[in-house]
């Protein structure tokens, strides 16, 4: 066991990820040299992962409030009102670094961590999503990472018992050295049954719940705040090991305990385990905390105070308990086979004291550990805007061939291979499973309400223009939720970037946050929780800027819900929100990238005013019951959007295109704020006429572009492609890649 | 119908099953915690739901099969009470020796959640009378270890006695089960184990109600 009296050398400080000026700050704060355990505690609290020291200044600019918001950022998860005394509790969090080092456990514990964030608040998890990004398909590590991460996500979520209803999977060489695993979870609670982490009352027992503490994950949060190099394999011991069975028991025990009225405050032990949770509970409640480590349930012998304070063993909680309920609380945990130990108490001296084997190994000012963490206004340079494509720069291809090639490409092919490894229907409330625009889950105990979930970002847009890319991530998430008929309520952001100490990377982060903020304000889609993952770099190569947005929307009546599948034959198809030429923008499109190998041009700009107007109009059509099949247009534009609606239904469509206009941008342009809507109306009837006039009156261009029916998809002058061929192209890439 | 659902830590489709039984029978089932040794009087049906009992860290269902409640369930089955085990529940019944054979890892070595087609191979059982003989129904599966196996003599007996109740149909066998077996019953015909999840396909919100017939059959018998 390393002694607590270990000499604090500059090497030791550096190996804790603390810069010399940060260490000086510690010396100034406590007026003496820290003990080894104290150094570990500071390192845990002050690393990028826990302190948000590079991003805080900019995160403060995001909109986080609204009449629907009950709890914004700062707690374990955000809380949003959905009426009738019900609330939805949700958050998205990254587990990138551990997943690259040990994909199965990294991804599994990412899922476990986000589920715990949600049920710590008193909510039963009802839905999960995962946004995954991997390196190039031909990179030697990619298959191994895909297979491990997907198995880990499934292994944890399936056993815990939460349906995975959506997500994303993308490939790009820029993720070769750093994959991204962003896990989202949402739960349901009652508005009067929300639990927070703020401790209240002096001299009250601090209780340790859940699994025992081991040496796994010691220093994990510090590892996640540094770049990778070729010695990355040595970091494997910093990855935690997940136990979904214990987590499931912990969920049931916590919900039972909360219902008993015994809980004053509760906090899950995530990054930096016991340290972070204890400090957070005390500091929020303006109280000190004293911990006696001899009482902590351990599963290994001879653990030092340092190891116990920094362990990231999973499935653990810390709670402040009403003393008179102790016996009742302990009985619940015994029933579920979990540890229950009083490990400390709240105090009135605002100190964070840690005792081990009768010795005080740490005695620190509790508020300063969080409040006095360094905060940086890092230098940043404004990203350069790419030049627009020349008007006549429209590389040609056969439309049918290009469509089939895109549907069979790494980024656009069906994700069935992935989502069939996830339990998508457990709990019996899944109304829309992966493969559509958004996952939809009905609200148990309510006759007609349902929640829609989507996770979105287009990293290549963010790379080309982080500001527009940030806007687009929010807009696409909002649009996907709208396409089901749901009203988008609020969002969570998971910002994945490279090393913020580089001004170019910091510039991406700043611009993306500005874009996200602008879009969230315009669309009334506040950010209620989130997470920042920086230093996603290997040997100096950063990932594509990837600010993932997870959103939640409310459907008043799921009987009036739209899906992407065509709902019948001979239905008129409208392209709602289109420009006069239906589609124009090829810059940064998958058509340019995957058909012509080009990554140039600006991403499609998002007109937020139009986005809002068009979205409200489309939602109105769904609520009236005239639009049962709706799909937003994104990657691959009109051609891919139509193909996806056809494949989901087995029904073809004919879309003649425009005379005298180049069909390439029409069918493959990625202009924003567009929806395909197939109407359950007679195209010759008066109701259809009235609807077109209504769109016109609202200032929305919504041309009737074609009609559903038959077994082929016919686009413009291109040859008709049987829907069965589309399905074959779409379904074959992923299994062939993984099993090839 | 008076029903009860067995609760063992790690089972996680208990809520789905309780909801399905409540919706189909109009009556909420009782719950039986793992340590219980006596069962309520007059039960028509005991269900062991799906999940990952004790994490399935040992052989699936092996620990749950040895919990006190399972002895009571076995005694009830001997007295003729109808018992249904779904997914992990099926694995538990096999581990408890109440059904023959074994459920091995899927041949894909992966968890699989998708809809399959089932053939009602024997429509003359307490669980299937609401279906037509050889009727093809839709049903979802969600499991990692559903690959049924039995020794040749045992298999012959099962097939010969009409105890293969459900079979994966139309090339939808998701796990490599021998003879496409999805569900089997005991010799007395009152204990059924099946891998698919009929409780997740009983109402329009589920996109269909093909799974309802199993519960309705037991309900009709109880009435």
UniProtKB/TrEMBL annotation, chain A:
Positions of the PurM-like N-terminal domain: 74-188, 435-554
Organism whose genome encodes this protein: Tianweitania aestuarii
Active site: 49, 95 (proton acceptor)
Subcellular location: Cytoplasm
Function: Part of the phosphoribosylformylglycinamidine synthase complex involved in the purines biosynthetic pathway. Catalyzes the ATP-dependent conversion of formylglycinamide ribonucleotide (FGAR) and glutamine to yield formylglycinamidine ribonucleotide (FGAM) and glutamate. The FGAM synthase complex is composed of three subunits. PurQ produces an ammonia molecule by converting glutamine to glutamate. PurL transfers the ammonia molecule to FGAR to form FGAM in an ATP-dependent manner.
Originating gene: purL
Alphabetized UniProt keyword annotations: ATP-binding, Cytoplasm, Ligase, Magnesium, Metal-binding, Nucleotide-binding, Purine biosynthesis
GO MF term set: phosphoribosylformylglycinamidine synthase activity
Main location (coarse class): cytoplasm
Binding annotation for Mg(2+) 2: 117, 268
Recorded metabolic or biological pathway in which this protein acts: Purine metabolism; IMP biosynthesis via de novo pathway; 5-amino-1-(5-phospho-D-ribosyl)imidazole from N(2)-formyl-N(1)-(5-phospho-D-ribosyl)glycinamide: step 1/2
Keyword 4Fe-4S listed: no
Record EC number: 6.3.5.3
SUPFAM superfamilies: PurM C-terminal domain-like (SSF56042), PurM N-terminal domain-like (SSF55326)
Protein name: Phosphoribosylformylglycinamidine synthase subunit PurL
Complex and partners: Monomer. Part of the FGAM synthase complex composed of 1 PurL, 1 PurQ and 2 PurS subunits.
Domain PurM-like C-terminal: 202-354, 573-697
Pfam annotation, one family: AIRS_C
Ligand binding (substrate): 94-97, 116, 240, 312-314, 533
Residues that bind ATP: 52, 91, 493, 530
Upper lineage: Bacteria, Pseudomonadati, Pseudomonadota, Alphaproteobacteria, Hyphomicrobiales
Automatic annotation (TrEMBL), chain B:
Pathway connected to this protein: Purine metabolism; IMP biosynthesis via de novo pathway; 5-amino-1-(5-phospho-D-ribosyl)imidazole from N(2)-formyl-N(1)-(5-phospho-D-ribosyl)glycinamide: step 1/2
Matching SUPFAM superfamilies: Class I glutamine amidotransferase-like
Source organism per UniProt: Tianweitania aestuarii
Official protein name in the record: Phosphoribosylformylglycinamidine synthase subunit PurQ
InterPro entries tied to this protein: Class_I_gatase-like (IPR029062), PRibForGlyAmidine_synth_PurQ (IPR010075)
Source species taxonomy: Bacteria, Pseudomonadati, Pseudomonadota, Alphaproteobacteria, Hyphomicrobiales
Subcellular location: Cytoplasm
EC number assigned by the record: 6.3.5.3, 3.5.1.2
Quaternary structure annotation from Swiss-Prot or TrEMBL: Part of the FGAM synthase complex composed of 1 PurL, 1 PurQ and 2 PurS subunits.
Record: active site: 87 (nucleophile), 197, 199
Matching NCBIfam families: FGAM_synth_I (TIGR01737), PRK03619.1 (NF002957)
PROSITE patterns referenced in this protein's UniProt entry, alphabetically: GATASE_TYPE_1 (PS51273)
